Amino acid sequence: MSLRSTPDDTTAGAELPAVVPFDLSPLTRLSCQLGERIVSEDESIRRGEWTYVDGTWSLSVFEVTDYTVVLRVRTPVGRQRFYGAIQTDIESVEPQLEAADGWQRQR
Fold first, then answer.
1. Which backbone phi and psi does 57 adopt, to 5 degrees?
2. Torsion angle of the four alpha carbons 80, 85, 87, 93, in this order, in degrees rounded to the nearest 10
3. Residue 64 in contact with residue 44, Cβ under 8 Å?
């Protein structure tokens, strides 16, 4: 009996909430403790911050290495979710976010 399993194509990775106007893959979900620690360090640079028009959601993007970003999503009830992504991937979807109805850039 094998104790290891091989992921198949049906295994879903981390996904952004449906309100976010783009999809990224691959995407890694980070724990709140790790995400908060990463974005609060002096080495991280806030690339941008957007809020949903009704003010219930927000999305912040932080550059943390030359190739990696961390996305912080704040939910309507104030929870924070953190995701790791490839910097070039966020650069490719940033125009979708800028053009999305309902999302406004704050920074």
1. -120, 150
2. -80
3. yes
What pLDDT, in 10s, does the model give residues 68-99? 999 999 999 999 999 999 999 999 999 999 99
**C-beta of residue 50 within 8 angstroms of C-beta of residue 59:** yes
Residue 97, exposed/middle/buried by CB under 10 A (0-12, 13-18, 19+)?
Answer: middle
| pTM (2 d.p.) | 0.84
The whole-angstrom separation of Cα 29 and Cα 14 is 6
Phi and psi at residue 87, to the nearest 5°: -60, -40
Stated as kind and residue range, the H or E segment containing 85 is strand 80-86
Does pLDDT of 8 surpass 60?
no
Average pLDDT, the chain: 88
